[in-house]
Design brief:
Number of strands: 13
Low-confidence stretches: none
Order of helices and strands: EHEEHEHEHHEEEHEHHEHEHHEHEHHH
Number of helices: 15
Helix content: 25-40%
Largest sheet: 7 strands, parallel
Length: 362
């Protein structure tokens, strides 16, 4: 049995202000064998503070002096004798500057890349960050076939599909169907306009709720706000929205555990849609696999990696009819949920082994 002094020391770094959901699984993977430290944006820490297995942390407000942040990170790494560093969001310029300052250190660094295209054509990633970081993770197996990384670079994948269940059960009527749309409401990233037009025209089954699981800034998306306000009051009550703040993890967990299907609203025409077919994923995928809630995807994704096996599909004009069918007959959702639960790929043992194989690679 390892005691604390025998454990390897590792720091998880997130200075991009998001992707905290990817840190939960990494702490879980590492805590049996590593002394785990977290260096992150200050506003992210409340989402992590409850987790067991974090030995120390350093918090940053990155709107100020970049030089000061880098100096503080370097000081922390040295003071705690950190042997391994995993960068949770590698694409940002602050990380580029940090790793160049760590160029001659002995610390073993692995980077997580959220848009795999950066490994193909980003000068910064390949020629600057890549001077020090030679190992990268992406977050789905299907992305690997589209990556042409620099010579001498190792790229692997893991699935951060383990989330803390800190939420309290929500009341839900028997027979209700809850459809979750994860992520902050942003009209450029997901096709809310079509969904709201269809709801206005066709309505929803009376036992269905649409839950927009993310912050909503009406001032940023006035068109979406206007479409929500234009719905009849009884129909508007079937749509759940939150305020502009980050949805607290316990609240998010409570809704996710009662959700029957996830609807990412990735339709042709949304920003960077072609990248979602090659080098980018939606965070909804790992929520689906982690919570065992099936995805309902536009038909362009019907042959895409894990989705081909574990999702249901629709043509955009047919979405209202598909929602009615699922509310009337949830059997297809139950079958997909069972398939996700039975897939060994999503097990803790498999994903921990994948993660450690690259993170600890010399």
């Amino acid at each position: 049995m390892h005691n604390q002094t025998e454990k390897k020391t590792i720091a998880l770094l997130e200075l991009g202000g998001s992707h905290v959901e990817c840190l939960y699984a990494q702490v879980l993977f590492l805590q049996p064998t590593h002394e785990v430290h977290v260096i992150c944006n200050r506003h992210l820490w409340p989402e992590l503070a409850h987790m067991e297995g974090i030995s120390g942390h350093q918090l940053h407000d990155t709107g100020g002096s970049r030089r000061q942040v880098i100096a503080q990170v370097k000081k922390y790494l040295k003071a705690h004798h950190i042997q391994y560093l995993v960068i949770n969001t590698t694409e940002i310029s602050l990380v580029r500057d940090l790793v160049l300052r760590l160029l001659f250190s002995r610390i073993n660094i692995t980077g997580i890349v959220h848009n795999a295209r950066k490994l193909n054509n980003s000068f910064t990633m390949r020629k600057m960050t890549g001077l020090k970081v030679k190992k990268f993770f992406v977050l789905n197996d299907a992305l690997l076939a589209h990556i042409h990384a620099a010579k001498g670079t190792a790229v692997s994948s893991f699935y951060p599909v383990f989330f803390p269940h800190t939420g309290k059960p929500l009341p839900k009527q028997e027979g209700e169907c809850w459809v979750g749309v994860p992520g902050s409401i942003d009209g450029s990233r997901r096709d809310y306009t079509t969904l709201l037009e269809q709801i206005h025209t066709h309505g929803l089954p009376p036992d269905m709720k649409i839950i927009f699981l993310g912050g909503f800034y009406p001032e940023r998306d006035p068109d979406i706000a206007a479409r929500l306000n234009a719905l009849p009051p009884d129909l508007r009550q079937q749509l759940v929205t939150f305020g502009p703040e980050l949805v607290p993890q316990p609240v998010f967990d409570s809704w996710m555990r009662q959700t029957d299907v996830l609807l990412p609203l990735l339709h042709p025409g949304v920003h960077k849609f072609p990248e979602y077919l090659t080098t980018r994923i939606s965070g909804a995928y790992n929520l689906s696999f982690g919570y065992q809630v099936p995805l309902l995807m536009e038909q362009s994704f019907s042959t895409w990696g894990d989705l081909a096996q574990h999702a249901l599909f629709y043509a955009v004009p047919d979405l209202p009819a598909v929602l009615r069918q699922l509310a009337a007959n949830p059997a297809p959702l139950h079958a997909k949920r069972a398939g996700i639960a039975a897939d060994p790929k999503f097990s803790l043992a498999v994903q921990r082994a994948r993660y450690l194989a690259l993170a600890e690679q010399a």
